[in-house]
Design brief:
Keywords: Membrane, Transmembrane, Transmembrane helix
Number of domains: 1
CATH topology: A middle domain of Talin 1
Protein name: Ca2+:H+ antiporter
Largest sheet: 2 strands, antiparallel
Pfam families: Na_Ca_ex
CATH class: Mainly Alpha
GO molecular function: potassium:proton antiporter activity; sodium:proton antiporter activity
Structural class: mainly alpha
Shape: globular
Distance between the termini: 42 Å
Strand content: under 5%
Membrane topology: Multi-pass membrane protein
CATH superfamily: NCX, central ion-binding region
Length: 367
């Protein structure tokens, strides 16, 4: 890990999160002119880069796989807040927003981020090498959570439409929390070695082999605070941009569900950049930890949150996927399984995953 902590309070990675939050406070809840929308978009992009920097500082201090977990959980917690805010403000038309955003996050992480990182890693070293035990456990948990939370509601009969009854939603929420908690314990305590980067021969890379000096505890804590601030700015500014996004989607004649795709793309930018940079440094396992960990956190934290929020929110909570999306989810799990089993991937596997993401985006635009 090569991230360095800025010694000056005037460093851009310190100033940008602060200025972005100020901009967020000034623009929240207001109708913005075109010039202001452009300024917000610029600060949103730079705040993403600042978040990536601080995530790498924290990851360098705590080591793997804790670093990937910190970024995944931080982004997802704030993503959940964004989903709840948009759902509360949107009324009946936002009944499927949580489903659309969570499924978009699964497709982007399991096909987009994973495919891009495998492609980068394989092009750099001919094959991308990772630990199939840890990656397989991650993929299995994501597949289970996605099926329980997004597929079963389409087939249940207790309530009309693709939705759970109260008892079913309670079970899905509790199952999501339990599975995610067990995975975190497996990743960080009992089988931590399964989630560490590996060499081409399969042996685990000892983090002590990294000759760069890690940041101090004080620097890491300061970066953690700035990471949270930057992520709040990213998600908040994405919310500020959402009316413009919605108008753009409507003007282009796209389905309203495409808003969830755009929101997921914006929210997952920090993890995407961090994952690709890790793959470029021959840390493909770290990239996969970020990708699959983000998908898992997105489901495991969002579903319980919206389940609780549904107690006071009016209107139905639609969670069940349509037939097209279920087919995409099924082939994503099948292809992901075949990718993970060997513990190594060529550029072909990366391209296959990226083609699935492209298919998802095309079908989101033209169902």
């Amino acid at each position: 890990m090569t991230a360095r902590f800025p010694v000056s309070a005037l460093h851009w990675t310190v100033l940008v999160p602060a200025f972005s939050v100020v901009l967020l406070a000034l623009t929240w809840g207001r109708v913005l002119p075109v010039a202001a929308v452009v300024v917000v978009a610029v600060f949103l992009a730079v705040a993403v880069l600042a978040a990536v920097h601080h995530a790498e500082v924290v990851a360098h201090r705590v080591g793997e796989p804790y670093g990937a977990l910190v970024l995944a959980v931080a982004v997802t917690v704030i993503e959940v807040a964004l989903i709840l805010t948009l759902t509360a403000d949107g009324g009946p038309k936002s009944a499927g927003l949580a489903r659309d955003t969570v499924f978009a996050a699964v497709m982007i992480t399991c096909n987009g981020i994973m495919g891009l990182c495998l492609l980068v890693g394989a092009l750099r070293r001919r094959v991308a090498v990772f630990n199939p035990e840890g990656t397989g456990a991650s993929l299995a948990t994501v597949a289970t959570l996605a099926t329980l939370s997004l597929v079963l509601p389409t087939f249940t009969t207790s309530t009309p439409g693709p939705r759970f009854s109260t008892a079913q939603l309670t079970f899905a929420a509790l199952a999501s929390l339990v599975l995610y908690g067990l995975f975190v314990a497996t990743q960080t305590v009992r089988h931590r070695a399964y989630f560490l980067p590996v060499k081409p021969g399969g042996e685990v890379i000892d983090v002590s082999e990294d000759d760069s000096v890690p940041p101090t505890t004080r620097a890491a804590l300061f970066s953690l605070a700035l990471l949270v601030v930057a992520l709040i700015a990213v998600v908040g500014l994405a919310k500020v941009e959402s009316p413009t996004i919605e108008r753009g989607v409507q003007y282009a004649g796209l389905p309203s569900s495409f808003v969830g795709v755009v929101i997921a793309l914006l929210v997952l930018l920090p993890e995407t950049i961090a994952a690709v940079r890790a793959a470029a440094r021959d840390r493909v396992q770290t990239s996969l930890n970020l990708a699959l960990g983000s998908a898992m956190a997105s489901i495991g934290l969002t579903i319980p949150a919206v389940a609780v929020a549904s107690l006071w929110m009016s209107g139905p909570l639609l969670l069940g996927l349509g037939s097209t999306h279920m087919v995409l989810l099924a082939i994503t799990v099948a292809v992901g399984t075949l990718t993970v089993i060997p513990g190594r991937a060529t550029p072909l596997q990366g391209a296959v995953h990226l083609s699935l993401l492209a298919a998802y985006v095309v079908l989101a635009i033209s169902p």
